[in-house]
Design the sequence.
């Protein structure tokens, strides 16, 4: 059989001569989708911000614990390497 190319078939059909009609509800749908997308983006940004703050607080807490541990280790090392006089401190 003979195959008719699509462009020729559409030209013969007359579809290209019709005026495109857009339903009024399309604008409403488009606007509501845009608003929903914006709200979703804001929610994602807010979650991300809160997550970053939580991570920063955890990091700060961990650093404080490590600082305290290091300070205790220094105090113990100083106590071991320089022992107090055994005579009670009076000469």
Sequence:
């Amino acid at each position: 059989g003979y195959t008719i190319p699509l462009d020729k078939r559409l030209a013969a059909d007359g579809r290209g001569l019709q005026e495109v009609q857009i339903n009024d509800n399309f604008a409403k749908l488009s606007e509501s989708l845009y608003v929903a997308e914006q709200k979703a983006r804001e929610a994602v940004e807010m979650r991300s911000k809160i997550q970053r703050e939580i991570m920063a607080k955890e990091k700060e807490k961990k650093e404080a614990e490590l600082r305290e541990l290091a300070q205790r280790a220094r105090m113990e090392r100083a106590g071991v390497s320089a022992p107090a006089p055994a005579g009670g401190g009076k000469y």
